[in-house]
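Q: What structure does this chain adopt?
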Amino acid sequence: MRTLHDVQHEIDVLIKEEWHSHYWAPLSSLARLTEEVGELAREINAQYGEKPKKASEGPGDIATEMGDILFILASLANSTGVDLDSAFEEVMAKYQERDAKRWK
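A:
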């Protein structure tokens, strides 16, 4: 199973070595991330909400949209020097501590 570190490394190799490219500027990556979250929202709304897609639109895939979000988020993390494994550990510790205080 891949860790977030593995995901970040795999994306770094893809962008730098296979595509011979570079990361987008952080603000451009944030705009792209926002766009991908919007696409996820559209798919969830179409499948579970009250706004079905038009007949002319093809079926979407929630998992694919989440994958796109992970790719862009990991790219943004790489370009800004954020270790997502560490960031996630810190967030989980914060939530676990908050939950522990609530049940005392």
